[in-house]
Every structure is written in structure tokens, then in C-alpha cells.
Amino acid sequence: MTETSALQAERNRLDAPVDALTRLFFIFGSPIAHVRAPVVWSTLMKRYGVNAVMLPADAAPAQFEHAMEGVKSIANVDGLIFTMPHKIAAMKHADALTERARRVGSINLLRRGPDGTWEGDNVDGAGFVAGLRADSVTLEGSNVYVHGCGGVGQSIGWSLAMEGVASLTLFDLDWQRAATLARSIAEQSHVSIRVGAPDMSTIDLAVNASPVGLNADDPLPFSVDDSPHHAVVADVIMEPRTTRLLAAAHSRGLKVHHGRNMMNFGMPIAASFFGLPESFDWNGAAVQK
Amino acid sequence: MTETSALQAERNRLDAPVDALTRLFFIFGSPIAHVRAPVVWSTLMKRYGVNAVMLPADAAPAQFEHAMEGVKSIANVDGLIFTMPHKIAAMKHADALTERARRVGSINLLRRGPDGTWEGDNVDGAGFVAGLRADSVTLEGSNVYVHGCGGVGQSIGWSLAMEGVASLTLFDLDWQRAATLARSIAEQSHVSIRVGAPDMSTIDLAVNASPVGLNADDPLPFSVDDSPHHAVVADVIMEPRTTRLLAAAHSRGLKVHHGRNMMNFGMPIAASFFGLPESFDWNGAAVQK
């Protein structure tokens, strides 16, 4: 019996969660306590016989640079996921970027290549769009509002612009951030773009891409009182599953689209980016709808 | 149901190995593939309901500084273990040292205190001595040979000197390293100390504290052909369990002491240092003898 197979036998006997050969993935966020990625990814890795875990990494912005240099220096770290507020800061840690990540200006994924360099991607928007499509939401010709133009809002804005929407209205508390995104999208697409708060009665799809709603006592990110009856209201917040915004939309009889869809439909794309088995059943029993 | 308890419920339903609240411990080593700490510690943490895992961190010496700064920057990292070759380099990452760690000049444990500072300890020697005692090896009045004066050899040398042995003979391929350890022990104990290869016929307890024997085709670290029949031969190498040295000693009818004892008897001391449950049954079913 080789050393490695002896260790494997001991691991199996003890049903240990990790061993010396376990490959490490981290999700960086701040706060981190609400993220579902460690549970969901690690469960699927175990179920599919991949000796890897997705670990929570609680790093405040001031600690992020050191933490990133550190985990990249550990040879058995294969990939990283970024959630708020690190998606933009993470970008400079990529040696190369996918086309969509370069366009968006932020990354939510970073993988180590065979040559040791790190490649960044951003699949938030692609996952969000895939979720809307699966939920039969029409995008072509729609008037869309994106509230919040941080990492996730940028990714969603870009992806929607590429899906044939009629107009995009972009809002951010930092007006400059919304304007920058608008200018950048306008340079590469023909979608009609406005910056600022919209006339909600003209909006077919309203998306909260801001962190407002993470805390139970947050105000509504925006009002849906004037939304037309056919409007769809989407939130990127995963926990709580039904935010105050979605509850308000639901009580008005509007169609709601939960934040978990973005992760559930982004995960197969991310898994493929990380080189994990394509058969990963992300939308099966392991994933809470 | 709070967000955290919802996450906990999902984790339980899926039997996930980690979740967003999991506390992280790392064992740093290079190579790392043979270390048993991830399996053994993580199993016990799980068994005792501690939401934590012990992860392998494969960091070459050139990457060690970055990797250390990084993991210390992650807020949910509570403690670190060091194995070869990092025990000496790790010391400068401690804000404070226990008395025995200061004496030895290397650490194998580092914990984050409530105030965010890091304290280092070295329990290799204490674990090794506890293992010998449990194996009924007499130390008082013995003539002891320690082969290898790196981190673990230093810790063992110091601990044996404090246990009333008659003489210590210290050897290292780097003669200066053995001489430095000898001088340092001589300043604080009255044990008789020699540096160099011993007359093995006078040695009651011979300890391999070098990495020689980790690989199947390594030579013997030293010969036991001239050892007296009552001699005990100990190895610090855990994997393979029976090194070529121990096999040679066994075939001569000498008493052998396996490397795993140092970890098995050091672990309760380490667990206590990390603030883990004192009831941890390190020497029960989870630990392979």
C-alpha cells in the first residue's frame, strides 16, 4: 500500500471531510456568514468524488490584498470565488481575463492555470440571464432597470445589454459609477441607456443589484408601487430568499425572480470554468430553489 | 428562522463538510501529501461538533512568507500547525511565544488570541516525551542520541534535557546547527552534551529527528548494528509507519517507538492550546496507532 492509499483508507474509515491531498477553493466576502457557496459547492464536490472543498474566507477590504497574495501562494489552492465587496478589487489579481470579465470590469471567479498563472472570469451576468431565461422572462425589447452598479450590477448590465433589451436604466448612489458603466456599455452596444432613477411605470424588468435588503431592517431599494402589472421584479440577494423588495412585488401581484437563480444557473458555468465535472447536478437535490 | 439557522438546516440536510461559519485551521508543510493532521483533526472536530476543519497548505519555503501573511489576514482562520520545513521560519509570525517555544527557537503551533495577536508554541518535544513515557521508556539517567537538529530535533532535544537524561549526543549534517543547539541547552541545564556521531554501543535511546526515511529509497539515517540489546530506537517520521530504521531496529530485537506517538500524544496538548474541547479523544478510535 502506498503512503497516499494508506491515507485514503484512513480517511474513508473515519469519513473525514478533508485529507492531505484535498484541493482548496475559497469564496471571499465580507460579510461571509450568509453565503451558501461553501455548503452547496462542497456538497457537490463530495457527491461527485472530487477531493476538494469550497471554504469561506472572511476578509475585510483592508485585509483583502494580503489575503489574496497569501492564498495564491498555497500550491493546493485551485480557484477562488468573489462576492461583495471584492469583485472589483479582485480583478488586479488576474494575470489574464476572459472577454466578458474585461468588459465588465470585475471578476467573480479566478482559476489557476496549468502554467501557474491566474485567469479571471465573471459569470454573474451570464448566470442571471440564464436564470431569467429558465424562468421564461422575455428580454428582447424590454425596458430594464438595474439598481446598483457595483460588481454584480455591472455584470448584469453588460449581459442584459447583449441580450437585445430595448433600454437599460442604470442607478447607483454613486452617480459617477452608473455613468461610467453606461458610457462603457454604450461604446459596445446599441441599447438605449439612461442614468438615474426611472419612471417605474415604463419598466418591464426591475433588478435590485445592490446590497440593500441583506439586513432585515434595510429599507426597500426602490418602490414598485408604480410598476405595470406585467412587470418582473428580480433581486440578486440570496439570503433572505424573499427580500422585502420581492415581498412588496409579490403583494402587488408582480412576478418575482429570486436571487438564488443567479447562483444556481451561474454555478454550472463556474464549474466548467474551474474544470470540475460537467455532470455536476447543480439544479438537482443539492440546490435549494 | 434566522439566516444562520437556515444555512445550518441546509448544511445538515446535505451533510456538507463545511459552511459559511466554518472556522479554518491549516497545517503548513512541504511536501504535504503525507501529513495525517487534516484527516485526524478534521474527523475529531466533526465528531465533537466543532464547526472547523484542518486544511492542508502546500507552501514551498519561497512562498511561505506570502502564504502566512495571507492566512493571518483571513478573519475566520483561528490556528496554524507547522511541519517540515517551516517550524523555524514560522516563529517570526508570532507576536508572542510560550516559554518552551522561545527556548526551542521554533514553533509548530500558532493561535489567534481574542485581541487578534498571534501566539506561538512548540509541543513537539512535549508530545514526544509524553509518548515515550506512555511506552514505558526510562529517560532518567539515559544516554540519548538525537539525529537531526532542525525544528523537531531542537524541540525533542530541549524536552529530553529537561527530563533528567544523563547525556545528550546531538548530530546534524549542518554541524553548526547541532553545536548551536548544544550550547543553548548547556546554558540552561546540567545535562552532559556532545556534538557529533556517537559510539552507538553507549546509547540507550536513539532518535531519528531528521527527514531521512520519508522516502522509500532513503538510506538509514544511522546504523543500529552496535546498539545494546536494551536500546530503544525512535523515529519522528509518521508515514511510512515503520521506517527502514525501525525495521532494522526491530530485526535486531530492539524496542522501537513509532513516529505517530509524537503526534498522538502532542495532539491533546495542541488541542488545549487551540481552545478545543478537552474531551477530544485523540487516542481513541480516530487515531491510527
Shape by Cα distribution of chain A: globular
Uncertain regions spanning at least 5 consecutive residues of chain A: none
Question: Helix fraction of chain A?
Answer: 25-40%
**Total E-strand runs of chain A:** 12
Under the CATH scheme, the architecture of the largest domain in chain A is: 3-Layer(aba) Sandwich
N/C terminus separation of chain A: 44 Å
Q: Quick one: biggest sheet of chain A?
A: 6 strands, mixed
Give me the side-by-side strand order of the main sheet of chain A.
2-1-3-5-6-4
Q: Which two chains share the most extensive interface?
A: A-B, 53 and 53 residues
Give the helix tally of chain A. 9
Helix-strand pattern of chain A: HEHEHEEHEEHEHEHEEEHEH
GO molecular function (chains A, B): NADP binding; shikimate 3-dehydrogenase (NADP+) activity
Protein name (chains A, B): Shikimate dehydrogenase
Domain Shikimate dehydrogenase substrate binding N-terminal (chains A, B): 27-109
Organism (chains A, B): Caballeronia glathei
Can you tell me about this structure?
The structure is a homodimer of 289-residue chains. With 289 residues, chain A is an alpha/beta fold. The first copy, chain A, folds into 2 domains: 120 residues, Leucine Dehydrogenase, chain A, domain 1 (Rossmann fold, 3-Layer(aba) Sandwich); 136 residues, Rossmann fold. Helices cover 34% and strands 19% of the residues of chain A. In chain A, the strands form 2 sheets. In chain A, strands 2-1-3-5-6-4 form a 6-stranded mixed sheet. In chain A, strand 5 and strand 6 form a beta hairpin. In chain A, helix 5 packs across helix 6 and helix 5 crosses helix 9. The N and C termini of chain A lie far apart (44 Å). The model of chain A has no long low-confidence stretch (mean pLDDT 92). Chains A and B meet through helix 1, helix 2, strand 2 and helix 3 of A and helix 1, helix 2, strand 2 and helix 3 of B.
